[in-house]
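Thread title: Can someone regenerate the structure for this chain?

I was given the following input by a collaborator and told the matching structure tokens would be attached. They weren't. Posting the sequence so someone can regenerate them.
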Amino acid sequence: MDRAALTCELLKQFQKGVPICARPYARMAHELGVSEAEILDCLAHLQDNQVLSRIGPVFEHRRAGSSTLAALSIEPAQLSAIAAKVSAHPAVNHNYAREHAYNLWFVVTGSDRAAVDQALSEIAELAEQRPLDLPMLQSFHIDLAFALDHAALSQLNAGSVHAPQLHPQAAGR
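Best answer:
Regenerated them for you:
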């Protein structure tokens, strides 16, 4: 299977879930009829081209502890530096830039609300301002799976499609 076809099948079959087992990439490879090394190479290519920023679980946050959406209003010249500091905080699992007065958005998680509040206080010291705190009031399930076709995904393998990323160190957070 060529890389374009593998990318298409990999993303179509596993965008909603990765096998939960000791060797998930080996199982994915078996299901697609390729080697584990080919799966890892394909995923690395997608991350190198900023198509994927992370591969990891999504938890039902209320069962796993507490979380909040937070935002900061950062001077554009300082955005990358502050984003790197925010991303380095262990309670932050990702951040992203927005074109708005509040231009740095991130999710803070903790074992309970007190831990989230502590993390927000620590981030306030790093950023020299108190983050906007937007805890979820009501949960909605949104299916984020995308219909993918071979032609569109072939652009990914050619390196012609790049998803914007705020800070390279934010990948995996």
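The beta strands are 66-72, 92-97, 104-110, 132-134.
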